[in-house]
Design a protein that fits this description.
The complex is a heterodimer of chains A (300) and B (254). Chain A is built from 9 helices and 10 strands. With 300 residues, chain A is an alpha/beta fold. Chain A has a domain at 28-63 and 71-105 and 220-272: P-loop containing nucleotide triphosphate hydrolases (Rossmann fold), CATH 3.40.50. In chain A, strands 6-7-8-3-9-10 form a 6-stranded mixed sheet, with helices on both faces. Chain A has a 4-stranded antiparallel sheet with strand order 2-1-4-5, with helices on both faces. Chains A and B meet through loops of A and helix 7, helix 8 and helix 11 of B. The structure holds adenosine-5'-diphosphate and magnesium ion (MG).
Chain lengths: 300, 254
């Protein structure tokens, strides 16, 4: 893909990181299932390096639900891909379970922004895609259970082309859950869903997260969703993506009609739209960053 | 209604040709050896079927096609897959392949006869050569166009290279590959007739060139019609069979 800029140096860096990592894990009592320190990421665009992520520091505890918000293009998807080992990084430490991330692992699932079902596989085979190591019976059982979980019972033998966008996305979530990952990274998973299904799925994903104590990291462009789901909300700046703040959400603040909820919302809006909030207040805009950006475009 | 209209439209030109043919024979005073009457062609067809010659010729040609096509399919799919997945292999082979493809298959025949003689091998080699390129190019195209996102899914689930090929590249390339295989079969059939016309002692192409030297235009026309019909039947058949391999493709268009 040609995205590694300093290939060899990186390998060395990663090796030294690994030693560092072990000490740190020991020091932190291995509480952190994901640990990102001083992460920098560049992409080569027209042969010129472009900073995408800059000095990302984020430690995630086992069983935590982290949500990430930020303008589109700020590197949220890239951050998730680095965490699960699909994308290389230049600088910094990225660890899962105390080990430097060098590639994908079975315990770290990912649900992509576009559903990425394989069009030639029936839904049941798409959901069971990562389960080829399991015996047939267990595989079928897991597929059945997770399809039911996302409300797609009866669509086992359909092809992705026969499903609506929202259904495809739910199938992709089922695939992400099917091999019982301890970490699940979700990249705007509910973006294609209608408002009702979205709220339903939010409840469902919270239930799953509690039930299986999965650690979840979800990128979302819906600020309400970020507050409802996240134990902590990571607010990122525009490119190059930096972490502006990590907001801890209290249990009470997750209630949509609580006063605290409103305060969190204002805080996030202020971070994301600090430059132009003289003409727009958080009250009269919808909860969707994308929509705000559209309005911005139309206005100018 | 639409399909009736379509059928009627499709039949107008053939009907016109038949009428023109009939008129040309009746009023044109063309010699029998140049333009035989329709009854004469029909009779030639019947005799050649009855004495088993036509069937035999067709079977000889078809068996050559099957042999050469089978080899071309394997070579084309393997080479196309390798070139489609490896940038190095692509840069190494694709430029020269593009050049070689421009040489019409007829232009290969003299050299191949020099190298392989006029026996069975030369025909099979010509068919391999003719069918190989469309299969290769289409396979390569289908493999190469596999979306990065799907390959990312394969990497996420740690599929090894072979599994990635079987589960992602190959199914993605399959519809393209089938197009190549279909085109390949068409050119293989044309190539066998061409090679038999030039140098052979059996097969439908040989029968045509033999009949020409005997001034039997009726037999030439019978052979031409048979070649055309077999070509169409093979194409339709392979289209239907291949459609069964890619059930998800039909859904996309719907
Ligand atoms: N493989 C790649 N090669 C080059 N640039 C990329 C690649 N992937 C993403 N980018 C660029 O990196 C930036 C961040 O992308 P992304 O992580 O997808 O942002 P987000 O998910 O926050 O919208 C964008 O400007 C995008 O164009
Ligand atoms: Mg994204």
């Amino acid at each position: 893909m040609g995205e590694t800029i300093k290939g060899q140096q990186n390998d060395q860096k990663k090796k030294t990181n690994m030693i560092k990592v072990d000490q740190e894990c020991f020091m932190k009592g291995n509480d952190y299932i994901i640990n990102v320190e001083h992460l920098h990421k560049q992409f080569l665009v027209d042969k010129k390096p472009m900073d995408v992520l800059s000095d990302i520091n984020l430690s995630i505890k086992r069983g935590e639900f982290i949500t990430i918000v930020g303008h589109s293009g700020c590197g949220k998807s890239t951050l998730l891909k680095i965490m699960c080992g699909l994308v290389d990084y230049e600088d910094g430490i990225v660890e899962r379970n105390g080990h430097a991330v060098v590639g994908p692992g079975p315990k770290c699932g990912m649900v992509f922004q576009d559903h990425r079902l394989l069009p030639w596989l029936k839904i049941k085979d798409n959901v069971g895609f990562g389960l080829s190591a399991l015996p047939k019976k267990e595989r079928e059982e897991s597929v059945r259970k997770h399809l039911e979980m996302v409300g797609l019972k009866g669509f086992e033998n359909s092809y992705p082309a026969q499903l609506s966008g929202g259904m495809s996305q739910r199938a992709a979530i089922a695939r992400g859950l099917a091999n019982n990952p301890t970490i699940l990274l979700l990249d705007e998973p509910f973006g294609a869903l209608d408002a009702l299904t979205r709220i339903q799925m939010q409840k469902e994903i919270l239930r799953i997260q509690k039930e299986q104590s999965t650690t979840m990291v979800m990128v979302t462009h819906d600020i309400d969703e970020a507050i409802v789901l996240g134990n902590r909300i990571v607010v990122m700046s525009a490119r190059p993506g930096k972490i502006m703040d990590i907001i801890k959400v209290s249990e009470a603040g997750r209630e949509r009609n609580s006063e605290e909820f409103g305060r969190y919302k204002k805080k996030i809006y202020d971070y994301l739209f600090s430059e132009e909030n003289n003409e727009m207040t958080y009250k009269d805009v919808s909860s969707d960053i994308d929509e705000i950006q559209k309005k911005k475009k139309n206005a100018s | 209604m639409k399909s009736i209209k379509k059928t009627v439209l499709a039949l107008i030109v053939p009907f016109g040709i038949i009428v023109a043919w009939y008129l040309a024979v009746k009023y044109g005073h063309t010699p029998e050896g140049i333009l035989p009457s329709m009854e004469k062609v029909w009779k030639a067809f019947k005799t050649n079927i009855e004495n088993g010659q036509l069937t035999n010729d067709v079977l000889v040609s078809l068996s050559r096609v099957v042999k050469g096509y089978f080899v071309a399919a394997i070579l084309g799919i393997v080479a196309g897959s390798v070139i489609g997945m490896s940038k190095t292999a692509k840069d190494l082979f694709l430029p020269i392949i593009t050049v070689i493809r421009q040489i019409p298959i007829i232009a290969w025949i003299p050299l191949i006869i020099l190298w392989c003689g006029i026996g069975e091998e030369s025909k099979v080699v010509i068919i391999v050569l003719a069918a190989f390129f469309p299969i290769l190019v289409n396979t390569e195209n289908g493999i190469e166009k596999t979306p990065e996102g799907m390959l990312e899914v394969a990497r996420l689930y740690k599929l090894n290279p072979w599994k990635t090929f079987i589960k992602v590249y190959l199914p993605h390339a399959l519809p393209h590959m089938l197009v190549g295989l279909r085109l390949g079969l068409g050119v293989a059939w044309m190539a066998v007739v061409a090679s038999e016309l030039i140098a052979a002692s059996s097969g439908i192409g040989y029968r045509m060139s033999d009949a020409r030297s005997l001034m039997m235009a009726d037999v030439v026309i019978v052979c031409m019609l048979v070649v055309g019909i077999i070509g169409v039947v093979m194409d339709k058949l392979i289209g239907v069979i291949f459609g069964m391999f890619t059930p998800w493709e039909k859904l996309k268009k719907a």
